[in-house]
Design goal:
There is one protein chain. By secondary structure, this protein is mainly α. It contains 13 helices and no strands. The chain has helices at about 1-10, 15-30, 35-50, 60-75, 80-85, 95-110, 120-135, 145-160, 170-180, 185-205, 210-220, 225-245, 255-260.
C-alpha cells in the first residue's frame, strides 16, 4: 500500500490530501509496522509534503495533519517528530506556529519528554517562548481559541519537562511578568493562566522564592478591571497557594484576604 500512498502525497487535490493523511494514520497504527520502516520510508516525504504553511490555513487539513503526526510519534517516539518541527515554532506564519505547538502538546501528553535530549530541550524552550511572545494580540478580554492553543502547548511542555525546566524558569517567569503588564486584556489573562500552570513545576524545581515573587506580582494586579482577567489572576494565586502552602505564601494570607473580600 505504501508506495501508492507515497505517490499520492503529491496530489494537488485537497480532499485527496486528507484521505491520504487518514490512511497513513491508520496504516501506521497497525500492529507489526516497524518504527525503522516509518523513519526511513514515511517521515521524510510526510514532512516535506504535509508540514507546510498552507496546511495550517484550512481547519480540516490542520486537524488531520496533527492527528497523523501524533500517530507517527506513537510509533517512532517523540524526539524523532519534535526534532523535525521544533524550529518551525519560529516560523513567520502564526497559524503554522499554532499547528506546531498543538502537535508538540499532544505528543508530550501521550509520550512525555523522556527521549528529548538536552540540545532539543533548549531548542524547544527557545521556540515555545518565541511562539508565545509573538502571538498576534487580540483586543478582547476573553482568551480566543488560538491563544488557548499556545497556552496549552506551553503548559504541556513545561509540565512534561518538569525538573529539567529549572535553568529556564527565570526566563519563563520574566515573560509572565512582562506580559502581565500588557495593555491587552487577553495577553494579561493568558500570562496569569500560564503562571498558574507553571506553579507545580516551580515547586518541583525548588524555586519557592521565584514563585513567592510571582505571588506578590499577581497580588498587585488584583485591581484588574476585566472580570475574566481577574478570574485568571485569582486562579494563578490559588495555584501558588496550593503548592507553596498557606504559611509560606507571599504576600501573607492576612494581607491577601482583605484584598479578596471586596472582589
Amino acid at each position: 500500500v505504501m508506495p501508492i500512498l507515497l505517490r499520492e502525497f503529491h496530489s494537488p487535490d485537497e480532499e485527496m490530501k486528507r484521505i491520504v493523511l487518514k490512511v497513513v494514520q491508520q496504516c501506521v497504527a497497525t500492529a507489526g509496522v516497524e518504527p525503522e520502516y516509518i523513519r526511513k520510508e514515511i517521515l521524510p516525504e510526510f514532512f516535506k509534503n504535509f508540514w507546510i504553511r498552507r496546511m495550517a490555513l484550512d481547519r480540516r487539513n490542520y486537524k488531520q495533519v496533527i492527528e497523523t503526526t501524533e500517530e507517527l510519534a506513537n510509533k517512532v517516539g517523540s524526539s524523532d517528530i519534535i526534532t523535525r518541527i521544533v524550529d518551525d515554532l519560529k516560523d513567520d506564519s502564526e497559524p503554522y506556529r499554532r499547528m506546531v505547538m498543538e502537535t508538540i502538546r499532544k505528543v508530550f501528553e501521550n509520550l512525555g519528554a523522556g527521549d528529548i535530549d538536552d540540545r532539543l530541550e533548549e531548542r524547544l524552550i527557545d521556540g515555545i517562548l518565541y511562539a508565545f511572545q509573538e502571538q498576534a494580540v487580540d483586543a478582547s478580554s476573553s482568551l480566543g481559541k488560538e491563544s488557548q492553543i499556545m497556552l496549552d502547548g506551553f503548559g504541556a511542555v513545561v509540565v512534561a519537562l518538569g525538573e529539567r525546566c529549572k535553568p529556564y524558569l527565570k526566563q519563563i517567569a520574566g515573560t509572565i511578568k512582562w506580559r502581565l503588564n500588557n495593555k491587552s486584556a487577553s495577553v494579561r489573562m493568558q500570562a496569569a493562566d500560564l503562571s498558574g500552570r507553571t506553579a507545580v513545576v516551580m515547586k518541583a524545581c525548588g524555586e519557592d522564592q521565584r514563585m513567592g515573587h510571582l505571588g506578590v506580582v499577581l497580588y498587585e494586579y488584583l485591581g484588574e478591571e476585566y472580570p475574566e482577567v481577574l478570574g485568571s489572576i485569582l486562579g494563578a494565586l490559588r495555584a501558588i497557594v496550593n503548592v507553596i502552602g498557606m504559611t509560606k505564601m507571599t504576600p501573607p494570607i492576612q494581607d491577601l484576604l482583605p484584598r479578596l473580600t471586596p472582589i
